[in-house]
Design a protein that fits this description.
By secondary structure, the protein is mainly α. Helix content is 53%, strand content 6%. It binds zinc ion (ZN).
């Protein structure tokens, strides 16, 4: 692994979690990103590493950060613990809902 010894901060706004450099976000934040955007981040990163422009990757990680911010705003506005548990349980599955 090229970067396995390096650490960086989670890309989500306001999160100071230290994560391995090859990851974009800490696990809880990454799981808040809709699967479609997660796949986009992974695919554009691979393309970048193969010599493509990083533009698509940068756009994808911006969308990922925005998705997390929206998800966190939703959770802050609704303090029901049941709702939070439901979000955690369904966060792994593909969601097509757009805020
Ligand atoms: Zn985080």
């Amino acid at each position: 692994m090229l970067f396995s010894r390096d650490k960086k901060k989670c890309f989500a706004a306001g999160c100071g979690e230290q994560i391995p450099r090859q990851l974009l976000m800490c696990r809880p934040h990454w799981l808040m990103v809709p699967v479609a955007i997660r796949n986009e981040v992974i695919e554009t990163l691979a393309a970048w590493q193969e010599g493509a422009s990083p533009k698509a990757y940068i756009a994808a990680i911006k969308r990922a950060a925005e998705a997390v911010a929206r998800e966190e705003a939703t959770q802050t506005n609704d303090d029901s613990p049941d709702k939070t548990a439901e979000v955690a349980a369904t966060g792994v599955r593909a969601r097509t809902r757009r805020g």
